[in-house]
Amino acid sequence: xxxxxxxxxxxxxxxxxxxxxxxxxxxxxxxxxxxxxxxxxxxxxxxxxxxxxxxxxxxxxxxxxxxxxxxxxxxxxxxxxxxxxxxxxxxxxxxxxxxxxxxxxxxxxxxxxxxxxxxxxxxxxxxxxxxxxxxxxxxxxxxxxxxxxxxxxxxxxxxxxxxxxxxxxxxxxxxxxxxxxxxxxxxxxxxxxxxxxxxxxxxxxxxxxxxxxxxxxxxxxxxxxxxxxxxxxxxxxxxxxxxxxxxxxxxxxxxxxxxxxxxxxxxxxxxxxxxxxxxxxxxxxxxxxxxxxxxxxxxxxxxxxxxxxxxxxxxxxxxxxxxxxxxxxxxxxxxxxxxxxxxxxxxxxxxxxxxxxxxxxxxxxxxxxxxxxxxxxxxxxxxxxxxxxxxxxxxxxxxxxxxxxxxxxxx
Length: 411
Description:
Layout: E1 4-12, H1 19-28, E2 33-35, E3 47-49, H2 61-64, H3 69-85, E4 97-102, H4 108-120, H5 130-134, H6 138-147, E5 153-156, H7 162-175, E6 181-188, H8 193-201, E7 232-240, H9 241-246, E8 253-262, H10 272-286, E9 295-297, H11 304-318, E10 327-328, H12 331-334, H13 341-354, E11 388-394, E12 399-407
Parallel strand pairs: 4-5, 4-6, 9-10, 9-11
Antiparallel strand pairs: 1-7, 1-8, 2-3, 6-7, 8-12, 11-12
Helix pairs in contact: 1-13, 3-6, 7-13, 10-11
């Protein structure tokens, strides 16, 4: 079994247009959650975590016409990740490098525009590239094309755990020797009128905090009211430890293990047992006892069901030690990127460990007595020796995915 290093990081997300900016804003508790135009989204309370990406700044017009915002995010984040890995794109071993991308909703903006043209404008013609832009595997395909990668090119769609599954499956392939490198992560662009209204109909979205809209997402708080949708992408370059050391790569961290389980109870109602079993499976895969976990990145959506269930699941997985482990919930400031959330949170975990910090759970001013663990409320903690960290992702449909991460070391 081979060790798997994280050698590249890239993101376009509500916290910034590169990994370092995103980490610094998370550390400072600066929210990327903003009001949306109420006319465009047909709602006076529209709010989301928005990424500041202008496609024409990154792609020529001919290519841009074929790219949903979903694929734009993925390509820009991948370019940063590959660049930060220090490997020349031309030196990627095309047959020994895979692409593993998660997305929960695919090209929703393209599909929404097509439906509006077809039904709203009563047109018989929609964009000729609608299928190619809207299909779920478009981001992975475009990444493979851009870098000439002819190894496995796989797309995972397990709702909110999609990108954690993608990273975990990439880890598995490298660990077992099937690949030397992988581009892994997730992308999501759900901020269309149709998508927003569909989520609104589920009654899972938060009520906007009129005093401070950027503080609307309040995981583990007594006054939380739901989740906040967000857009963006996060990409990691993974490679076998031997491969990374041989080429003199800088190593950000290490993926130690991955656990995945399915609740099989209810399509929207989370399971304490299912989430706890995913954490336990991750411990086993990483060959790390629970006593060695120094911190947790919570799924922490800010919904009543998620926060209570995850709190109970952490207690079930760790026992009494759950009260000793600091927990961060960064969705409080970047919102829920659905299928891309796990990858962004994994990226932030890696940088937090690198910088010996614990990122804050913002807007936690009124703690819920039922959520009684150490949620690193409102202020980051410095000079914390985090060696091993857990990152949780739980999803509608019941797919629970957990990563065990370790700080960079040459040993």
